Amino acid sequence: MAEVTMEKLVTLCKARGFVFPGSEIYGGMANSWDYGPLGVELKNNVKALWWEMFVQSRLDMVGIDAALVMNPKVWEASGHLATFTDPLVECKNCHERYRADKIDLTKPCAKCGKSGTFTDPAAFNLMIKTFLGPKEDSSTVAYFRPETAQAIFVDYPLVMNASRKRVPFGIAQIGKALRNEITPGNFIFRTREFEQMEIEYFVHPSEWETHFESWLARMHAFIDACGITASKVHDHEIPSDELAHYSKRTVDIEFEYPFGQEELYGLAYRTDFDLTNHAKFSGKELSYTDPVTNEKYVPHVVEPSFGVDRTVLAVLLSAYHEEEAPTGEGGTEVRTVLRFPKRLAPVKVAVLPLSKKPELSEPAKALAQRLAKRWRVDYDETQSIGKRYRRADEVGTPYCVTLDFDSLTDDAVTVRDRDSMKQERVKLDDLEAYLANTLNT
Ligand code: ATP
After folding, report:
1. SS3 86
2. Which residues bind ATP (predicted)?
């Protein structure tokens, strides 16, 4: 079947309430996207899976949830105010702006078609500035964080004290980051407001390579758990002359999106750059003394960095399938199905009474309510059962539970599987156990 296009995906996301344009009734707001009822469930499931894999299940990890606006000195120490820039060029003819590293400057301007009209690249800082409080002057300037990482470095001594962890150990955070991107676009791939899931893993300087390799493997394990198509995922070793100012080694994990192969996640060896600079700028001691050897040193850092929105995009693209399916009346039709891993599916179970008549709809509603104690459940009683199956497939609901007139006497329901489309009669008393068997996979 045909490959999914961005157009198909964006249309489905809007129609079914995954992601739609922000501020739409006012004509929208360029490149701002809102997650709808299904999108928020999917995003929450991605974040919960990440937290479970990297924080909850590991004794060497703890989490934080820090403020979005931090003391501006943080950004001075981290180097963001001086160097967190992208190269900006402008077409002198139509004034369209581009990121110089993302286009071929020898080609004509994509907007007006003129050649040789680009200005020389200038460094454009991506930090979004604001003023806190009623006075707008240099004393009230603040910045929205462009990454979640810095809060982890700044909170490092307090976390060390409170959690009594020993190196190697890591601090994780999920949260929003804001960047004044020059060219946001490609749906939720590049926006000015997005969410990150980041880990700073503190290690002895002599051990960074081993930790780097194991984090790379763990990042791929997460990608697999999300059902992201492995053959479309590629590691890209960043050449040493292109490394960010803080990094000694970076591997970008890239994904083949319909618009090209681009970054999904990044893994960076940040050395002791951040802790050393924060110690210098804050005047606080940020070193670590090994309780066994008494060696005192500034821990080095391996940083696995994940974008939530790019994960959601890669998950949707990987899950999207169009395939021939029987209509129920002897023919075939194309069904669209989102084959999410079950634990990421926004809705786990759809409860469908065969008829709208109260003798079926009432027990069906009660059943939906019963299952909703454990899972996100949808209740759907309109149109034919075939159409309702298709609607559930299109949003990736793993199970449809149909209550029919026999159910009233045999205390059983028909459970239909999204992927195999097989149907099985299951006793109502066994239903939760039946569903629980696979819903966590
Ligand atoms: P790019 O090269 O695509 O601009 P980056 O290298 O600047 O990305 P990082 O600073 O490494 O990105 O950020 C870590 C992760 O945060 C990225 O791997 C990506 O998943 C996510 N991310 C970064 N910028 C954006 C954005 N503007 N919109 C959505 N996600 C983003």
Report:
1. strand
2. 179-181, 189-194, 263-264, 307-310
